[in-house]
Design a protein that fits this description.
The protein is mostly helical. The chain has one domain. Strands 1-2 form a two-stranded antiparallel ribbon. It is globular, with a radius of gyration of 16 Å.
Amino acid sequence: MTFQVPIPPASTADLGQMPLAAFEFDEFETRLLAPMRHFLTASAAPGCQAWHRAFVIAAENWGETHGLAVAYALWPVLRETHALLGSELSYNDPLDMDMRGLLTPDEARLLYMLHHMRRDETAQARDAVEALSRGRLEPELIRAGLSFADRFPCGARHRLRGTPLLRLVG
């Protein structure tokens, strides 16, 4: 059985979309976009298999061990976002080639939230959560975002937490 998820076609003008390159996201955050869109599609139609594609893309982006951990940690953030906003959440069709380089306002807010949380920029992260959640500071969304940020921080500490450092034993 095949599920089809209706994602209304939108031009860049009517949704206020911006090119991904216009934002200050690092490579890690930029690569979150494709799995994020597939997970949001799966949230909108729970019977579809878009979640599977999200895990496959994450494994292709960061390798199986790291990528699957990224996708697994990203899912609660997107689940809470969808639970909070429902049909108000705007995101692009993950399979639309013309929209791959563009962000909807909600996609940008979501990536900004993670961007600031990963850098431990509390005031900016709070503003990003408030913008994404339409003025509501939802504790479950914040908890999920902080959990993701703790697992995948930005900078020198960026490595898969819980993975032992490899040492040569002679």
